[in-house]
Amino acid sequence: MIKIYLKRGKDESLRRFHPWVFSGAIQRIEGKQEEGELARVFNSDGEYIATGHWQIGSIAVRVLTFDDEPIDEGFWDQRLAAALEARMAIGVADNEQNNTYRLVHGEGDHLPGLIIDIYGQTAVMQAHSVGMHICRNEVAASLKRVMQDRIEHIFYKSETTLPFKADLGQENGFLLGGSPDNIALENGLKFHIDWLRGQKTGFFVDQRENRSLLEHYSHGRDVLNMFCYTGGFSVYAMRGGARKVHSVDSSAKAVDLVNANVELNFPGDSRHEAFAEDAFKFLQQMEQDAYDLIILDPPAFAKHKDALHNAMKGYTRLNVRAFEKIRPGGILFTFSCSQAVSKDQFRLAVFTAAAQSGRRVRILHQLHQPADHPINIYHPEGEYLKGLVLYVE
After folding, report:
1. Residues with Cβ < 8 Å from 160, sequence gap 6 or more?
2. Does the structure show a pLDDT above 70 at 283?
3. Is the per-residue pLDDT at 164 higher than 90?
4. Distance separating the N- and C-terminal Cα atoms of the chain
5. DSSP H or E stretch at residue 126
6. 249 - beta bridge partners?
7. pTM
8. How many CB atoms sit inside 10 A of residue 389's CB?
9. Which of 81, 89, 230, 321 is in Cβ range 3.0-4.6 Å of 283 for a Cys bridge?
């Protein structure tokens, strides 16, 4: 374990329980530095502040605890038990109609660098730091102890999320069990989860509540689901009584998956059709007034601050097309999952698009990530999902 001493005055954010130590705040490091190992952090006077995982980069330490305690079996059990208790309190765990939820959301659950999603009997675990990767087997053992018979399988999926410079040679695979059964239940609807090849952990759990809201608005409408991925919004729209539902994604694999999910819930239903096409091209070429409910849920346009300008242009351009084409009296669900884009910046992009289209637009709902993706009050950077539901005259 290494010791990190901060420059004078650089401990203020940690005193406010912000869970990151930036490299520029460090005065000196004592001990052999191995990326991912535990580091004890002290202020310039040698007073203990926190313990966390050390890593190379601008975020030098991701804080696990502000208490001077060992990071051992008891620590992992306590943190994971607290995460499960929170999911039970909000009603997403141990729910007969829903076995799909996020159990651990990084800093939001005081476990920075760790994501765990539950899909039925399978937990999909993802490390975003070298430290969490090194601890993966300890975390998996603790996860099984805490979850007991709620899970039988733990799939580790960190091949694309770990820092590439760490050169860990990581491969995805099961740490516990192993099952070909990949069907999970969300609010009574069934979904194939592609944790082997799918994006993130295989399914975007963070849109669950927003999908339910869309279901409420879908009755009798012609629905277009752009960037459909696994078709979550499409399936909810079908159950909501949509007249027709079209799903669009540039990935042919995604189109196959959305078709499979629609068939799983509504076999033989002719209201749905999917297209493997570029979103911007599809919006440009589609007929005027063809849809009166459109969902825009693109992948992150800005993964870091340097890409912010182009991201804002992208969001504006995308929403202009939707405003121009949507039928009068239509409803637009539009989202950004870019952490680098603030709520105000996203709203400005949508406002600019509305103004350019010349349409009268009203905000019906302002949306965000659900309760199983909590935001640590001391870490506002954890708020990433922004959404607006708009009525377009």
Report:
1. none
2. yes
3. no
4. 62
5. strand 122-127
6. 276
7. 0.94
8. 20
9. 321
Bridge partners (DSSP) of residue 391 are 331, 362
| Beta carbons within 10 angstroms of residue 377's beta carbon | 9
Helices and strands (H, E) in the chain, number of each type: 10, 20
Tokens found for residue 382: 């954890």
At 240, which amino acid appears?
A: G
Domains and CATH numbers, the chain: 2-65 (2.30.130.10), 73-187 (3.30.750.80), 204-392 (3.40.50.150)
User: In Å, how far are 51, 309, 331 from 327, measured between CA atoms?
Assistant: 55, 30, 9
Rounded Cα–Cα distance for residues 107 and 308 (Å): 23
The closest alpha carbon to 44, from 12, 2, 1, belongs to: 12
Query: Residue 260: is its pLDDT beyond 90?
Result: yes
3-state secondary structure of 372: coil
Mean of pLDDT values over 43-49: 97
Task: Give the helix/strand (H/E) hosting 383.
Answer: none
Q: State the Cα–Cα distance between residues 18 and 384, nearest whole angstrom.
A: 17
Rounded Cα distance, 187 and 235, in Å: 11
Side by side, the strands of the sheet bearing 272-276 are 272-276, 244-249, 222-226, 293-296, 330-336, 386-392, 361-368
Residue 181: band (very low, low, confident or very high) from pLDDT cuts 50, 70, 90: confident
Instruction: Give the residue from 332, 336, 356 showing the smallest Cα distance to 344.
Output: 336
Helix (H) or strand (E) holding 171: none
**Which alpha helices (DSSP H) does the chain contain, by range?**
12-15, 73-89, 130-134, 136-147, 208-217, 232-239, 252-265, 279-285, 308-325, 343-357
Cβ atoms of 64 and 36 within 8 Å: the answer is: no
- d(C-alpha 196, C-alpha 50), whole Å: 36
User: Could you tell me the CA-to-CA distances from 158 to 180, 202, 345 in Å, in that order?
Assistant: 19, 12, 31
Q: Which residues are catalytic?
A: 337
Report the relative pairing of strands 59-65 and 48-54 from DSSP bridges.
antiparallel
Burial letters 145-174, b for 16+ CB under 10 A, else e: ebbeebbbbbbbbbeebbbeebebebeeee
- Pseudo-torsion of CA 145, 146, 151, 153, nearest 10°? -50
